[in-house]
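hey all, quick one before standup. I had two proteins in the batch that finished overnight and I want to keep them in one place so we stop losing track of which output belongs to which input. First protein below, input sequence then structure tokens straight from the run.
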Amino acid sequence: MDFIEGEILHIDKPLHWTSFRVVKVVRAKLCQRLKIKKLKVGHAGTLDPLATGVMTICTGKKTKLIEELQLHTKEYVADIMLGSTTPSFDLETEIDAVFPTEHINRELVERTLKKFIGTIEQVPPIYSAVMVDGKRAYEYARKNENVELKPKILVIDSIELISYNLPNITIRVVCSKGTYIRALARDIGIALNSGAHLTGLVRTRVGEITLEKCLKMEEIDRFLTDHINN
């Protein structure tokens, strides 16, 4: 493999790692092995630190494909807790409100999920990297400053309920670029006349690349030993 000319790697991003950290570590390992000081490395789609799963890394001239790769359909498995919310819509922040769940049953959840299939509008989380007046939205959030985020148009191809154990549910989502699963959890809670937040997230597929085809971070050294051209 010629990483200087350009290659594409698929990594299983570890829990608590930022996407930037994955890129930084991969770049450092490649530069060390190739005995070079600089190498262009980028990723084709951010994953939150509390999410794991498929992350596409491009090197060299293949970084020019990043925008195209970002357009690929993505699949997620998401764990959601009904009946409570957090400011970040996930476990990054503490629960700030609780809501009733006594009226919720499996049939209601399945019926509600179907309402999200198709082209929808979604307001991004305030704890996100969306740009607002030259600043990231999370910069306002961490200063407790209010900011209005505009809804984005996106496509949900399918949502499947794969586990129901109130107040916890697990769903599989196939969706377009730009979908915030945290925001989807929020909206599902609202649609159920309750609240909800994300408690776990795995990106299981990007395009045709599934989690099973991804390298774990601890496997990268061995992989580079086997594949770098001498």
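OK second protein, same deal, sequence then tokens:
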Amino acid sequence: MLELSIDTSTRYASVCLSEKGQAIWEINWHSSQNHTIELTPAIASLFQKADVAPKQLNSIFLALGPGGFSALRVGMSVAKGMAEALNIPILGIGTLEIEAMPFSSSGLPIVSVVEMGKSDIAWGVYEGSKKGLTCLRGEEVSAPEKVIATAPKGSLICGEGAKRLLPFACSSNGKNSTIFHSEGQTRHASCLAQLGYIRFSDFPIDNTIPMEPLYLKTPNITPPKPKGRRV
């Protein structure tokens, strides 16, 4: 059983080819232009490196967000198009879960965070389980100081937005948490592959159910300026 995992939630993107959830080949990159230009060549390169043809795929796993408005829609459009063309199921997994997956064996509450613009953080709380992860608190958007104040004591805080929480780590609640932060990529499609395969094995996938990106926050799109009157 071969799976393709696609994550274009943020500027840090990742695709992975896996067999029963175990990565065969993975490509990660920082999007310097936009995902529209870069995603399809990355997937083609993935198939070439792994010496696999698209028709050999059995399913597609997709990061649903939260994340960038355009970035998420690019990943979803490509994933849906491939799933329809190949007549295979597609399964969506939340981006915060993907961030939390590497720490699922920590034994601690995992606070997974992703930046949402200049002032807000998308976050959720998880714990490791035999099924990969169990959600303790659903996804929401808050200011960084609220995340620290609300996070369970003794939490492990991780994800692409973790660095934003460092200034608040000296608070009474922050001192009881461990913050893992990185200047580079924190999220990998190989973790999406693991989670996707676990869910795929447990629940049947119905492609007739509409799948939409998880934004959590209204996209910040500036309306076009009205054109001036011609004289």
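Flagging for whoever picks this up: The chain is about 25% helix and 30% strand. Helices lie at 35-50, 69-86, 95-100, 144-150, 189-202.
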